[in-house]
Amino acid sequence: xxxxxxxxxxxxxxxxxxxxxxxxxxxxxxxxxxxxxxxxxxxxxxxxxxxxxxxxxxxxxxxxxxxxxxxxxxxxxxxxxxxxxxxxxxxxxxxxxxxxxxxxxxxxxxxxxxxxxxxxxxxxxxxxxxxxxxxxxxxxxxxxxxxxxxxxxxxxxxxxxxxxxxxxxxxxxxxxxxxxxxxxxxxxxxxxxxxxxxxxxxxxxxxxxxxxxxxxxxxxxxxxxxxxx
Length: 229
Hints:
Layout: H1 4-15, H2 19-32, H3 37-49, H4 53-69, H5 73-89, H6 108-123, H7 128-153, H8 168-176, H9 181-191, H10 201-227
C-alpha cells in the first residue's frame, strides 16, 4: 500500500508536469513521511536530471537514516553514487594512461568504459558500485561481441519454435543482438552440464560451438607462446 505522500506526488506528476510544482510537492511530502522509498528515489533522480546534484545530496542525507531503518540501505548507497557521478560530471577528469596492447583489442565501448572506470577510481575512491558496473559492462560487451555474436553469425540449425528454458537468453539474443552478463554466465554454466536425451538442437549446437571455440583459443595461445621471441 503506497503512503499518502506517494499518492500525493503521483497526482502532482500527472496534473503538474512542471518540475517547479512536482519537486516542491515531493519535498513537502518527505517532511511528513521521511524515508519513503518511492519519494526519495523519485526526488533524488529528478534533482540529478535537472542539474542539482548538491540539492539531491541534501535530500538523501536528510532521509538516509530513515531509508536504512526501513531496510533500504542499498537504495541509499546507490543514490549516493549517482549523486557523486553527477558531481563528477561537472568536473574535468584527467584520463589515466592505460598501457598494454590488449587495450586495442577491446571493443570501442569497452575502451571508453575502462577509461571512465579508472578516471572515477582516481577521483573518488569510495565509488565502488559505479566502478564495478563499468567493469561488468566491459565483460558483458566483450563476451557478447567475441563469443555470442560469432555463434549467432554461424547460423546454427535448430527449431526456432522449440522452447528452451535453459537457453532463453541466448535464444532471445538472435533477435536483440545482446545478452546480459547474467544470461551469458547461465548459458555457459548449463553448457557445462552433462548431456541428456532432452537436450534441444540449440543446446547441442551451443555445446559444439564452445568446444570448437575453446580449441581455437588454445591453439591461438599456443602459437603466441611458440612464436614469442
